[in-house]
Design brief:
Largest sheet: 5 strands, parallel
Oligomer: single chain
Helix content: 40-55%
Order of helices and strands: HEHHEHEHHEHHEH
Length: 211
Amino acid sequence: MNYIIKLIFTIIFFLSFSIAIAHAKSLNVIVLGDSLVAGYGLLKNDGFVNQLQNKINSNNMKLNLVNGGVSGETSSGLLNRLEWVLEEQFDGVIVSIGANDTLRGINPELTFQNINNILNYLKKNKIPSMLIGMKAPNNLGKDYVSEFNKIYPNLAKIYRVSFYPFFLKDVALVPSLNQDDMIHPNKKGIKKIVENIYPYFIDFYKTFKDN
């Protein structure tokens, strides 16, 4: 009888230990950005972070995404809150910021410097990072568009981070993939974005999953 009880407790111990190890190996990645990340106008499960998490879960990856998006956020705002957001330790950070900079006509030099400082902070703290780019609308003028659109590829080269060139690729200005404001993607639009970004995300994941 005592043997059976000991055996049961041994089995329970090893099961608990295995579960603890599996949980410990789960990685946490925060996605920093604006309303495109926060999920403006969408149900929680339909937003970018949740749809990407569902894609991750379907592939049995031990990785948890944290939604660090704030509607209306500019690159200056993200830089200002960066340190306290990262007081909690993360295995990786995805930076997707800049759309509101263009909507407000913020000088591309300031946007460049802000994102540069963000990536520099992540590099100094040895936090693996992925940069998702944005593009300026053509109505802002040729010079502005040219200067703004160079920000992301240039910084990606400087910091050698994982890089996806344009968050809204294949979705921008497509009525069936956007909400009525033609700025924020709808559920179908987010699904398309996740499909496009996912292979790049996997490459990013591979850079830190075994560290």
